[in-house]
Amino acid sequence: MVVFRFHHGPPIDFLVIIFLFISLPLLCLGIRSFPTSEVIISDDLSRFTEAPEYRNGEHCRSGTVHVAMTLDSEYLRGSIAAVHSALRHTSCRKTFSSTSLPPNSIRRVYIFREDSVINLISSSIRVALENPLNYARNYLGDMLDPSINRVIYLDSDVVLVDDIQKLWNITFQNHRVIGAPEYCHANFTNYFTDIFWSDPVLNRAFGSKKVRSPCYFNTGVMVMDLRKWREGNYRRKIENWMEIQRKKRIYELGSLPPFLLVFAGDIEPIDHRWNQHGLGGDNVKGSCRKLHSGPVSLLHWSGKGKPWVRYDEKRPCPLDHVWKPYDLYRDSVDQIQSQPLDFIQSVVVF
C-alpha cells in the first residue's frame, strides 16, 4: 500500500479510488500497474514542461465534462498532449497552469484490473493492439461511479483544436448508447475473416440491422451514455464476440471489431470533424497521410505511426507539426533510452 501526500488536500491512498480535478472537467485514473514511490511519479512528470496559464473564456458555462483516456509508459507523452490541447481550446478551464497531471489535483484513482479482459484477448495484426488497455473502454460503465451517466472516450493519440464541450453536448436520439463519427460507405469485408462471412448465424449481426446498413466508426472517439450502457449490459455483449473470436478467429484487428458487431448501424452520428482519424497511417507501415476533406475539430493519429515517435526519430510527417505545439515533453531521445519510463498504466477521466 502506497500513500502519497499532496498539497491542498488530505493524505491519499494511491491504491484506492481517487478523483483528479482539472479546471472544469473531472479527471480520474484507473491504475494497471503501480509505482513504488513518490520519486517515480515525480521523475516522470519532471520530464514535462509547464503549460501556459489558462483562464475561463467569456462563453464559459458551469458544468462538468467527463473524458476518459488511457495512460501507459509508451503513450504518456501523447496523453499529456491530448489533455493540454483540450484545456487550450475549451472556454471553461478556470485559472489553470498545467504540468502533465497536477499533483495537487489528485483525489482518487479508479483501478483497472487487467485480468478482467486478459483471457479474452486474441492475437492481432499489430502487437500494440493486444494491450489490455485498449479494452478498458469496455469497462467504463463498471469502473466509474454510478452517478456518471455520460463520458467522452478519447484515445491518447489525439489533439483537439475545438471546444470539447461542443462534443459533450451532442443529443442522443431514441435508444442509442454511443455517438461517434460514422462512415457508411466502408467495406466491411476487410474487417472480418472468411470464417465470419461464411457463417450465416454470425454474419447475421449485420444483416439483421433493420434501421439502415451497418456503418464503420472508429472507437478512439466516442460519447457514451453510461446509463444505457449499464442497463443494456453492453460490456457483456462485447465480451461474447471476443469469446467467439478466441474460438473461430472471425477478425484480425484488436478491440474495434467487437464494437462494430454490437453497434454498427445503430449509433448516434457525430460530425466527421470530431475524428479526423488514420493520421498514423496503416497498421503495418504507419506511412504519412493527409486530412480528410472538411473542417477539423479533432485530429487522431490512429494507425502505427505516432507523432512523438516520428519526432524523436527525426522523420515527422507534415501533420505531425500540428501535434507538436501541444507536446510538453522536454527530454532528449538519449535520456528516454537511458531512463525508460516506468509510469502507471491507467484509465484517465478528466
TrEMBL record:
Q: Where in the cell is it found?
A: Membrane
Tell me the pathway. Glycan metabolism; pectin biosynthesis
Q: Example GO molecular function term?
A: glycosyltransferase activity
Membrane-spanning parts: 12-34
Query: What EC number(s) is this enzyme filed under?
Result: 2.4.1.-
Annotated InterPro entries: Glyco_trans_8 (IPR002495), Glycosyltrans_8_dom-fam (IPR050748), Nucleotide-diphossugar_trans (IPR029044)
Report which superkingdom the organism of origin falls in.
Eukaryota
Any single GO CC term annotated in Swiss-Prot or TrEMBL for this entry: membrane
Concerning PANTHER family, the annotation shows: GLYCOSYLTRANSFERASE 8 DOMAIN-CONTAINING PROTEIN (PTHR13778), HEXOSYLTRANSFERASE (PTHR13778:SF58)
Question: Which family, according to the similarity comment?
Answer: Belongs to the glycosyltransferase 8 family.
Q: What is this protein called?
A: Hexosyltransferase
